[in-house]
Each structure stands twice: as structure tokens, then as C-alpha cells.
From TrEMBL:
Pfam families: HAMP (PF00672), HATPase_c (PF02518), His_kinase (PF06580). One of its GO terms (molecular function) is kinase activity. The keyword Phosphoprotein applies. It comes from Paenibacillus violae. The chain crosses the membrane at residues 7-28, 286-306. Residues 307-359 form the HAMP domain. This is Histidine kinase. It is found in: Cell membrane. Keywords: Cell membrane, Kinase, Membrane, Phosphoprotein, Transferase, Transmembrane, Transmembrane helix. It comes from the Bacteria.
Length: 586
């Protein structure tokens, strides 16, 4: 059967055909605008970088004039000419010259050092206290007449630029000159300027020379900076200024560069092309978003033409699927205001009736499970009753009154607790009291028996099924302590984590071998039969019924040679226990 377009599809296709010419026209005009704006922004970036380079050169040029000014100073000339005169107070004049050097140094906007070296007398005067008066000076090196970049020892890896002027001017090395004037400034001055420029422009400027030496700003991206430096080196000699585009890490960058007339270095700045075009991109996205909103509004308008048919059917299909998956609370909350209202109302009534019937069956199943739990509990018998009575008889014949009283009191407390079946949920503290009475009775019978109970106070108010610990203690005595001559200790410890409670019952008795332990664990998860002892099986299944997946009983080899039984149940789950709201009476 051929597919037929419905009204909604036809209207939607018509709207798309109307929008296509508009989108094509905008794309053409946007491409032209994009090229024009990109050219203007690129030109603006280069002009701003050139202006910044001009300011930097101006500062460097002012520093370059410092040696010339020093050489013209009359006091400096007098000191140089008379420093070896016997009637000349050299120390006083040295102090005066150092003060003059310091004042002229701080008069500049950049941090710098001014130094005067006199090779004849091996004298060095400087505005820096670390250089002034030093006896270690490179007297035999060449004179640096142009700005030279170097990293001086002791400057913690921060480079500096130096420039020197000598008298006479023809001197090639320091020791050939009568006097040497040196000015030095740290590259930190340039770093600070680049930091300010970066804040204003949101860029990442750096300086590079022909030998690939690099001066970067404080927060430079080293990976991108190194990649740009390598690309510029591949291009050979660069013009004094210009712009190129490189692709770095799959992103296109616009690189602008300007050469310094003073230093001969290149000031380089880069910016992602995507960032340059961000205003145009934003406008384009706004346009396409508007077109999309118009399309959505058109779709909604066409959808309203038949919403009274499609939406009610969709709601009914969704609710039927929920009921099929077992969600009987599914209802259709929709007013179609037409014939579908009748179907929706009847569906809700039908789902409600099914839910009531299923909940009745489920409640009956819960009551049956509770009856099963009580039946399981009733199977827990006090196997030691007769032995306890015979103990009382024997102690009475031996006129051991204290033993008779102790056995009778503990036995009375034990049976008063075990015969109260109206409450199936008790606090862990009540179970521990019962176990204490039971162990006292066993201690009267088995004098070597010792026990230790250590449970955190936070666990004492946790809810557990009645008679959940006593079968484990009884099992530890009968199958562990009594079967081992050396067995004499039972420990009961409690621990908690974020989600679970655990009580561990451990003895140092005979224990089980690997095969016996595996058989015991297999019996815990098997259906109840005559071949399986009811004590531990009941404990495991009662915990599992009450607290769900993850709860129950398991066994491990004991650390002291016996057997370790671990009870696990959910923490704070007392609301799921039957009759958990009442307090246990003692």
C-alpha cells in the first residue's frame, strides 16, 4: 500500500520550501560581510601591535641615552680624570657618583642598572648594590655597542638587555677603553608591559629574536608559543611587520608580528581566527536560531490542526505500554474535548480496577509470607531445655544454691523472651540481652566457655527479626566449642557502614574443612527440606524476606580456627519490618 502524506507532513514541507530561499540569500550576504569584517579586524590587530611596539622602542631608546648622559656629566668627567690624584677624596666622590647613578636609574620608568667601569684602576661603580665595587668584572671581553640579550649568573634565569659606550670610541675590548658606560634592564619590564597589553586585548604577545630566544608574558601558553616560533623560523627572514595564518592543534590562528627598531627582536601576537569572527558567528547563529524558531512555530501551528486525534491516540498508546510493563498506576491525564474523552475515561476505570485486584492479590501474598515467617520462627526450639533442668536438679542435690538461682533466673528471662510471639521485630539490644542470658546458662554448664560481646551503641536501636542471633550462638557451642577440647571462646561483634549492618559470631572451636563449609553455604540457598537443619536456614531466609537483596547469613573460616557467621541487613530499614513501630517489652 503506497504511503500517503498527512496534512501535517504537507504543511511542514511547504514551510521548508519557503525558508530555503531565505537561508540561501542570507548565507551569500553573510559570506561577503565575513570577508570585509575579517580584513578590518586583521588590520586593526596589526596597527595596535605596531603602536605597542612603538611604545616599547621609545622606552628602550630612552634607556639607550643614559650612557651618553653619564658621559656628558661634569662630575662624572671630574671623577674619571682625577680618580688617581693623591689629593682627591676618592671614597667621597665614589659615594657621590653611586648616588648620582642611582638617581638617574630610578628616574626611568623601567627598572635598570647604570654602571661605570674604569679599566685602569679596576674600578666599578653601579646603581646596583650587587654590582657596585665588585672585583669580578670581565675586563677582556668585547664591548657590546648594540643591545645584547644575556642571562646573567645570579638573576634566577631572568634575562636582561645590555648596551655599552666606551671612551675612546675605537676601543674593541673593555681593557682597551679608558672608561666604559653600561646600561642594563631586565626583561621583566617587557613582561609587565605585555601583561598589561594582554589584559586589554585578551591576546598572548611574546618576543622572539633571530636565534629563537623567547620572552613571554606571565601567563603565556607555552605550547602554542613554541609552535608559532618554529613556524616563523621556517619562513626565513621576515619583513618588519606582517600577518600570517597557521593551523595549530586543528585550529586556525592569525599571527601578527612587528620588528623592534631598537632591539631587532620581533613582537608577535596571535589570536584564534574563530575569535576574530565571533561577532559574525554570533549574528549567524542568531539568524539560524530565529529561522529555527519560526520553523518550530510553524510546525506547532500545523500540529494544532489535528492534535485532537494524534495526541489522544499517543497518550492511550503510552498508557497501554506502561500497563503492559506492569505499571498499573498508569492513567491518562488529558482532556481531548471530543469522542476520545469517553475512551480515556473507560481506560482509566479499567486500569484502576486491575490495580485494585492485583494489590489485593499482592496483600494476600504478603500475609501468607508473614504467616510463613511465624511458622519458621516457631521451629526454633530451645534444645538445651532438658540439660538446663537436669543442671538445676543436680545443683540442688549438691546444695549449690547460687548455681540454681543463676540458672533459673537466666532460664526464666530466656523463655519469657522466646515465648512472646506477638511482635516479630525487635531491637538489636533485645536480641543481645537474650544471647547474654543464653550464654550465661551455657557457661554454668560448660565452665571453660568464655564470651565477649562488642557492638557499637549506634547499632543497638537497629531493628531485626526476633530470635535471629540465638541459633547462631547455639550452633557455635554445639558444633564448635563442645566438639573441641581447646575451644573456649565465642565473640560477638558488630560493625556498620553507610548502607549495611553486620553482626559477626565467631568461635575458636573445631570449625569446618573447605568441603564442609561449601556444603553449608549451598544448603543456605536451597529450598527447605528434611535434610537441612532449620536453625541457620531460618535465620538466612528471614533476613532475606525482611530486608531484600544483599541481606542474609553467610559463613567464613574463623581467624582463630573455628567458624565465623556473618549476619548482614540493610541499615535503617525498620519501616519495612512488620510491627516495627513498637518498643520491645522486657
Amino acid at each position: 500500500m503506497p504511503y500517503k502524506l498527512n496534512i501535517f507532513s504537507k504543511i511542514l514541507i511547504m514551510l521548508i520550501l519557503l525558508l530555503i530561499p531565505i537561508v540561501l540569500l542570507y548565507s551569500y550576504t553573510n559570506r561577503i560581510t565575513n570577508n570585509v569584517v575579517q580584513d578590518q579586524i586583521q588590520s586593526s590587530n596589526l596597527n595596535q601591535l605596531s603602536f605597542f611596539m612603538h611604545q616599547l622602542d621609545a622606552d628602550v631608546e630612552r634607556l639607550a641615552m643614559s650612557p651618553v648622559i653619564l658621559g656628558s656629566d661634569p662630575y662624572m668627567r671630574e671623577y674619571i680624570n682625577r680618580s688617581d690624584s693623591p689629593d682627591y677624596d676618592v671614597l667621597k666622590e665614589q659615594s657621590r657618583m653611586i648616588q648620582k647613578l642611582s638617581l638617574q636609574s630610578v628616574s626611568s620608568g623601567w627598572v635598570n642598572e647604570l654602571t661605570v667601569a674604569i679599566p685602569k684602576g679596576k674600578q666599578v661603580l653601579s646603581s646596583s648594590i650587587f654590582v657596585n665595587g665588585t672585583d669580578v668584572w670581565p675586563w677582556h671581553r668585547a664591548i657590546q655597542r648594540t643591545w645584547t640579550y644575556e642571562i646573567r649568573e645570579g638573576d634566577k634565569g631572568i634575562g636582561s638587555f645590555i648596551r655599552e659606550i666606551s671612551e675612546p670610541i675605537r676601543a674593541q675590548t673593555v681593557d682597551q677603553a679608558n672608561v666604559l658606560y653600561q646600561v642594563r634592564f631586565s626583561v621583566q619590564n617587557m613582561v609587565n608591559l605585555m601583561d598589561v597589553y594582554k589584559q586589554d586585548k585578551r591576546s598572548d604577545p611574546f618576543l622572539v629574536d633571530g636565534r629563537n630566544a623567547l620572552i613571554v608574558n606571565s601567563s603565556s601558553n607555552q605550547q602554542i608559543t613554541n609552535a608559532i616560533r618554529e613556524q616563523l623560523a621556517l619562513d626565513g627572514d621576515l619583513p618588519n611587520s606582517g600577518q600570517v595564518q597557521f593551523e595549530i592543534d586543528r585550529q586556525q590562528y592569525l599571527i601578527s608580528y612587528v620588528k623592534s627598531t631598537q632591539l631587532g627582536w620581533y613582537l608577535v601576537d596571535y589570536v584564534p581566527v574563530e575569535k576574530i569572527l565571533s561577532p559574525i558567528t554570533m549574528t549567524r547563529k542568531l539568524f539560524y536560531t530565529t529561522i529555527g524558531l519560526l520553523l518550530v512555530m510553524s510546525v506547532l501551528a500545523s500540529f494544532m490542526l489535528y492534535r485532537n486525534v494524534q495526541i489522544p491516540i499517543g497518550k492511550m498508546m503510552q498508557s497501554v505500554q506502561k500497563v503492559k510493563r506492569g505499571d498499573l498506576s498508569a492513567r491518562i491525564h488529558y482532556k481531548a474535548k471530543n469522542e476520545f474523552d469517553f475512551l480515556i475515561q473507560r481506560f482509566n476505570e479499567m486500569a484502576e480496577q486491575i490495580q485494585v485486584l492485583v494489590e489485593d492479590v499482592y496483600a494476600e501474598k504478603i500475609r501468607s509470607r508473614e504467616a510463613t515467617l511465624k511458622q519458621l520462627q516457631s521451629q526454633i526450639h530451645p534444645h538445651f531445655l532438658y540439660n538446663s533442668l537436669f543442671f538445676i536438679i543436680n545443683s540442688a542435690e549438691m546444695e549449690d544454691k547460687e548455681s540454681v538461682v543463676a540458672m533459673a533466673q537466666n532460664l526464666a528471662e530466656f523463655y519469657r523472651y522466646t515465648t512472646r510471639v506477638e511482635k516479630q521485630a525487635v531491637k538489636l539490644s533485645d536480641e543481645l540481652d537474650l544471647v547474654g542470658h543464653y550464654l550465661n546458662i551455657q557457661h554454668l554448664r560448660i565452665h571453660r566457655l568464655k564470651y565477649d560481646i562488642s557492638v557499637p551503641v549506634n547499632m543497638l536501636d537497629e531493628w531485626v527479626p526476633r530470635l535471629i542471633l540465638q541459633p547462631l550462638v547455639e550452633n557455635a557451642i554445639l558444633h564448635g566449642i563442645e566438639r573441641s577440647v581447646e575451644g573456649d571462646l565465642i565473640t560477638i561483634t558488630g560493625e556498620q557502614d553507610e548502607n549495611w549492618n553486620r553482626v559477626i559470631v565467631e568461635d575458636n572451636g573445631a570449625g569446618l574443612n573447605e568441603a564442609g563449609l561449601a556444603r553449608l553455604l549451598e544448603q543456605l540457598h536451597s529450598p527447605m527440606s528434611d535434610d537441612i537443619g532449620c536453625g541457620t536456614w531460618n535465620v538466612h531466609h528471614r533476613l532475606y524476606y525482611q530486608f531484600g537483596e544483599g541481606s542474609g547469613l553467610t559463613f567464613y573460616p574463623g581467624e582463630k580456627g573455628g567458624l565465623k557467621a556473618v549476619l548482614t541487613w540493610k541499615r535503617g530499614a525498620q519501616m519495612n519490618l512488620p510491627e516495627a513501630g513498637g518498643e520491645s517489652k522486657r
